[in-house]
Design a protein that fits this description.
The chain is mostly helical. The protein contains 6 helices and no strands. It is elongated.
Length: about 160
């Protein structure tokens, strides 16, 4: 900027040239990069926790279903542990998605919310069903209805819109 002023350019022109040199796409790009570098380790740790919880949940649920189908001992305990892991993983996802604000459209946010709610209701209903508590069947039926009437239509409509765009 000083070199441009000493060559005879006015301040406004030198300032605009320096601004374009420092941030050709605006200062918001620099702000986003700084935010990413400041939160990179948090995001990495969150992804590690989420992938480990997802693996443990899937592992426990699949072995629980296998043990239940084969009528092997400890099937109910493994399945219950897997469902509890699923419940806590979904709660973690729900709190994380509420905490982070994304500039998403209303149908996209509605799809995420209903998907998490269906998962929470299904896991809770299954736990209550295994423990033979009342209201478990109603919770499972409501979660399947919400899944089929709200989540899946939104999901496939958004996939369709993305494929033709």
């Amino acid at each position: 900027m000083e070199a441009a002023i000493t060559e005879g350019a006015d301040f406004e022109e030198a300032y605009n040239q320096a601004y374009r040199t420092v941030s050709p796409n605006g200062f918001s790009e620099i702000e986003e990069e700084v935010f990413f570098f400041l939160t990179f380790h948090k995001q990495l740790n969150m992804k590690r926790i989420l992938f480990f919880c997802g693996f443990a949940t899937t592992f426990l649920l699949s072995f629980g279903f296998l043990f239940k189908l084969m009528h092997w001992p400890m099937a109910q305990n493994i399945l219950l542990t897997g469902l509890c892991a699923l419940l806590f993983t979904l709660l973690y996802l729900a709190f994380y998605s509420v905490k982070t604000v994304h500039p998403l459209s209303l149908p996209h946010r509605l799809r995420i919310f209903t998907g998490l709610l269906c998962g929470l209701m299904m896991a809770t209903g299954s736990i209550l069903k295994i423990l033979h508590y009342p209201g478990a069947s109603l919770l499972i039926v409501l979660s399947v209805a919400l899944l089929n009437l709200v989540f899946l239509p939104l999901f496939f409509y958004q996939l369709y819109r993305k494929s033709i765009a």
